[in-house]
Amino acid sequence: MKLSFSIIKKTLESINPEFRKPQVKRNPDWTFLSKQMIERAGNKCSLCGKSANLTTHHIVPVHVNRDLEMDESNLIVLCENLTHNCHFIFGHLLNWKSYNDTVRDDAAIWNLKIRDRLN
C-alpha cells in the first residue's frame, strides 16, 4: 500500500493535536493573494527552493492577528512536503499553535546554506 501525504497527515493529526492546524475563516480574496505570492516567489519555497506543495504562510498567524491576514509583509512562501515540511518546521516550530517571527531571516539563511551545499 502506498502512503499518501494526506493519509500520513491525518494519522499524525489524530495522534497529536500539535499536528492539527487551527481553522480560521479566510478573507474572500485570500486564494487570489496566496497564488500571487507563490508566483512572485518563483513558484519555489523561500527556504528550501522546492516547487511542490507550496503554501503562503502567515508569519503572524491569522488566529493571532486577523488584521495581518492580507498584509503582504506578513507572508512568505513555504512548502509542505512529506520529507521536510518547511511550513510546519520553520514557520510554526513544530507546533501549529506556535509561530516563528524570524522565519523570513531563517529562510534566507537556510536557503543560502542549501544553495552553497549544492554548488
Per-chain topology:
Blueprint: H1 5-15, H2 30-40, E1 54-58, E2 75-79, H3 86-91, H4 103-118
Antiparallel strand pairs: 1-2
Describe the structure.
This protein has one domain. The protein has four helices and two strands. The chain has 119 residues and is mainly alpha-helical. The protein is 37% helix and 8% strand. It has helices spanning 5-15, 30-40, 86-91, 103-118; strands at 54-58, 75-79. It starts with a helix and ends with a helix. The protein has a two-stranded antiparallel sheet with strand order 1-2. The relative contact order is 0.16.
How can the largest sheet be summarized?
2 strands, antiparallel
Structural class: mainly alpha
Helical content, roughly?
25-40%
Task: State the low-pLDDT regions, or none.
Answer: none
Helix tally equals 4
Envelope shape? globular
Question: How many angstroms separate the termini?
Answer: 37 Å
* Mean of pLDDT: 87
What share of residues are in beta strands? 5-15%
Secondary-structure element string = HHEEHH
How are the strands of the biggest sheet laid out side by side? 1-2
What is the CA-atom radius of gyration, in angstroms? 14 Å
Beta strands, count: 2
- What is the count of distinct domains? 1
Write a short abstract of this structure:
The chain is mainly α and 119 residues long.
Keywords:
globular; 37% helix; 2 strands; single chain; mainly alpha; two-stranded antiparallel sheet; 119 residues
